[in-house]
Amino acid sequence: MERSNFARMVSEQQARLRVFIRILGVRPDAVDDIAQDAFVIAYQRRHLLEDLEDAGPWLRTIARNLVRNELRKSARRSRIVNAQLTESALADTRHQISENWSDQWLHALKHCVDLLPDKSRALVDGRYQQNLNSLQLAEDTGGTSTSVRQSLTRLRKSLRACVEKRLSEAPS
Question: Does residue 8 sit in the same domain as residue 90?
Answer without folding.
Answer: yes
